[in-house]
Amino acid sequence: MQEKVRLTASVDPEQLAAAREAVAAGRAVSVSAWVNEAMRRQAEIESKLAAMARFIAAYEAEHGVITEEEMRDARRSLRARAIVVRGPDS
């Protein structure tokens, strides 16, 4: 197991309450574990966003800037192929 590093941080009271609730409900071993998992997920999200930005930059370098019209057409195409899994009353 990797060595842990102590951290002092200020957080919103609501977030601390959520962490304590997760511990009390058994969804987290400790507040530290809950915060560590949140930080791991955030790092993963930021890594994926950076990879997406690199992909888009490479695509646009080769094919030109993606226009608003192209994005609108892509949304329209995706909506047309969408499969509704819930009824209107859901």
Describe the structure.
The chain is mainly alpha-helical and 90 residues long. The protein has one domain (13-81). It is built from 3 helices and no strands. It has helices at residues 13-24, 31-63, 68-81.
Give the topology, please.
Blueprint: H1 13-24, H2 31-63, H3 68-81
Cα distance, first to last residue? 45 Å
Overall 3D shape: flat
- Number of helices in the DSSP assignment: 3
Which strand-content bin applies to the residues?
Answer: under 5%
Q: Structural class from helices and strands?
A: mainly alpha
- Any idea how many domains? 1
Order of helices and strands: HHH
**Residues in helix, %:** 55-70%
Mean pLDDT equals 94
| Rg value | 21 Å
Largest sheet, in brief, is: none
Q: Tell me how many strands there are.
A: 0
Uncertain stretches: none
Key attributes of the depicted protein:
single chain, 3 helices, flat, mainly alpha, 90 residues
Short characterization:
This protein has 90 residues and is mainly alpha-helical. The chain has helices at 13-24, 31-63, 68-81. It has one domain.
